[in-house]
Write a structure and sequence with these properties.
Layout lengths: L5 E2 L1 E9 L4 H14 L3 E7 L8 E9 L11 E6 L2 H7 L3 E9 L16 E4 L2 H7 L7 H12 L5 H11 L4 H21 L7 E2 L9 E4 H11 L2 E5 L7 H9 L7 E3 L4 H14 L2 E7 H16 L4 E7 L16 H6 L8 E3 L4 H18 L2 E7 H5 L1 E4 L17 H4 L44 H19 L6 E4 L5 E6 L3 H13 L4 E6 L1 E3 L3 H10 L3 E5 L5 H10 L5 E4 L8 H13 L1
Parallel strand pairs: 1-8, 2-5, 5-6, 6-7, 10-11, 10-12, 12-13, 13-15, 14-15, 18-19, 18-21, 21-22
Antiparallel strand pairs: 2-4, 3-4, 3-16, 9-16, 14-20, 17-19
Length: about 575
């Protein structure tokens, strides 16, 4: 007997060299699954090469539950070359399938499991016979996949039209023709095929599908960001592309300067002039920005910095994911000064916390970091449209011309909150001085020890003021849990599903999600850890940076850790199995 038919539960993977349109195909397939009404997660993997190297894109779709990560296993593999077969054939589930071009791939030289189903589709021939470029083989592959999955191809027509409409009707029709070519080839040549996975349209709530970078960009626009300066660097480059595309629609100035030093200095200047500003980078680029982070802090200039982590040191793993920059961001630039670090873990948090970051930067007049990683930046996830009804802009303490009448204005006045009201340049009677040196309350250069202490204390009081309104870590999962999992960032997504797997094994688990990392929520974490029966921390770095941070601020040790630093993200089944091993000890 064969495996039972799975309807609307699929893991689809496409692999090949750069130049085959792997990323485009993955995006199209993910959006198609979303329009079918399914929950979708999609992620890519590619080397740091301009051309060539092995590229993959995984799309996972589920009808009955929300998902935020991929799995180790794959149901249907589209392989454009021998390497894709060699690397991924053993990932296939029982009676899984492989779509390949037998004119390009020598399937006979591989030891293929007997349960797997093979579907030769002459993708290159179908594309070139139609007078198309070989790159549209990817669209042929999507059409073939949909036929195997018994999916209505009309759904993808609307996706094709939306994606390619800017390129003109000819390109739209060309891609539709290639969908038909792949679809019809399967129907004509595998008429009796019985692939055990199906995709069917269902009625469901409206969903959008987007990456973490998309969500950060959309939130910045919603927050009123009017100046963006970014030197492109994986994994945050697409923020630049997104914002540049919307520049005229939302009256935003978007600049790609000559380097990262210019990028952050442009953003500081724009913010000083009174507009909300943002920059984005990765570890190598942030290394160049470090001195200017201190400038923003000393001049008390609001600034939002998106820091996308990838494997280091140096150039390291330019297109892979890691969480090795937490300590770097916490301590970057010389001296002590207030900064706030927020680490969203999925597209929803990327949107809402980016909006919050702009309000926090304005209110507390300091650098605010959105600390993300390649996994959350570039992975796509379906979600219901963001609810913006309660999002209110807070520009903080800004004095108007009326406020300044008969006022001896001091830009850096010493206050109990640490926040000094500011004046936007150009405001009548609002002339002030500012400098990167230590200064008086008026902003004049001064090195007097007693005044230095007062100004330093004033700036650092911002953190204590922020603690009073800082959101505390959320706990997901079971009450009175057998095991408590602590983590941060994109690990949230696979951990939540791992908890479901554990629950199926009658193991109660909960998850502490650290989003607001600095200032550290010491009292709340102490409370949680003191109640935990057994604790495990999950993070993507070698040295256990969050584990060390918890020890530093709480004095508590976490019983067990799961670390990964190969450049690839956790999967939910991987975390589940590692926790099961720990429970057996």
């Amino acid at each position: 007997m064969g495996a039972r038919v799975e309807v609307n539960r699929l893991s689809w993977k496409i692999g090949g060299e750069a130049g085959y349109g792997i990323m485009s195909a993955g995006t199209i397939f993910a959006k198609t699954c979303t329009r079918l009404g399914l929950n979708v997660f999609a992620t890519n993997d590619y080397p740091s090469l301009i051309r060539g190297g092995h590229n993959t894109y995984i799309v996972r779709a589920e009808q009955d539950k929300k998902i935020g990560c991929h799995l180790e296993a794959v149901d249907l593999l589209v392989a454009f070359n021998d390497e894709s077969i060699s690397l991924h054939k053993d990932e296939l589930t029982h009676e899984g399938g492989i779509v390949y071009d037998g004119d390009k791939v020598d399937i006979k030289k591989f030891q293929i499991r007997k349960d797997l189903k093979l579907f030769h589709v002459p993708m290159f021939q179908l594309a070139t016979e139609a007078g198309e470029k070989k790159v549209v083989q990817n669209t042929v592959a999507i059409g073939a996949s949909l036929a195997l999955l018994d999916c209505e191809k009309e759904i993808i027509y609307s996706v094709i039209k939306d994606i390619f409409k800017r390129k003109g009707e000819k390109i739209v029709q060309s891609n539709i023709n290639m969908i038909d070519a792949g679809y019809n080839f399967i129907r004509q040549n595998y008429i009796d095929h019985k692939f055990n996975h199906k995709l069917k349209k269902i009625n469901s709530e409206k969903r959008i599908v987007l990456t973490g970078n998309d969500a950060i960009s959309a939130a910045a626009i919603k927050a009123g960001c009017k100046f963006v300066s970014i030197y492109p660097m994986t994994p945050t480059s697409n923020i630049l592309h997104f914002m540049a595309d919307k520049e005229l629609d939302y009256n935003i100035i978007v600049k790609q300067p000559e380097d990262e030093i210019a990028a952050i200095n442009f953003a500081i200047g724009a913010s000083h002039a009174g507009v909300r500003a943002m920059t984005a980078t990765s570890g190598g680029g942030f290394s160049l920005m470090v001195e200017s982070v201190g400038l923003a802090a000393m001049t008390e200039t609001p600034l939002v910095i998106v820091m996308g982590q990838r494997g280091g040191p140096s150039t390291g793993l330019p297109t892979k994911t890691e969480q090795g920059d937490l300590r770097f961001v916490m301590h970057a630039s010389q001296g002590d000064f207030p900064r706030i670090i927020i680490a969203p873990g999925d597209v929803e948090e990327c949107f809402y916390e980016t909006f919050n970051a702009f309000n926090i930067a304005d209110k507390y007049q300091c650098p605010v970091f959105i600390l993300v990683d390649k996994f959350v930046c570039e992975s796509m996830k379906s979600t219901k449209p963001f609810d913006t009804s309660n999002l209110k802009t807070d520009r903080g303490a800004i004095l108007s011309e009326k406020n300044l009448q008969n006022l001896d204005y001091q830009r850096f006045s010493i206050t109990d909150s640490g926040i000094s009201p500011r004046v936007l340049p150009g405001t009548r009677d609002g002339i002030f001085m500012t400098t990167s040196d230590e200064h008086t309350e008026y902003g004049l250069y001064n090195e007097e020890p007693e005044l230095r202490k007062k100004l330093m204390d004033k700036r650092m009081r911002k953190l204590e003021t922020f603690r009073k309104e800082m959101p505390l870590p959320l706990i997901y999962g079971d009450e009175n849990a057998d095991i408590t999992i602590i983590s941060w960032g994109s690990n949230k997504q696979p951990i939540l599903e791992a908890i479901e797997f554990l629950r199926n094994d009658k193991v109660k688990a909960n998850f502490v999600n650290l989003v607001y990392i600095f200032p550290f929520p010491t009292e709340r974490v102490i409370e949680i850890l003191d109640k935990a029966k057994k604790s495990i921390i999950v993070e993507m770095n070698y040295s256990g940076q969050m584990e060390g941070l918890i020890k530093e601020y709480t004095g508590r040790s976490i019983g067990h850790h799961i670390r990964k630093y190969e450049g690839v993200p956790f999967t939910s089944d991987e975390i589940y199995l590692k926790i099961k091993e720990i429970l057996k000890r």
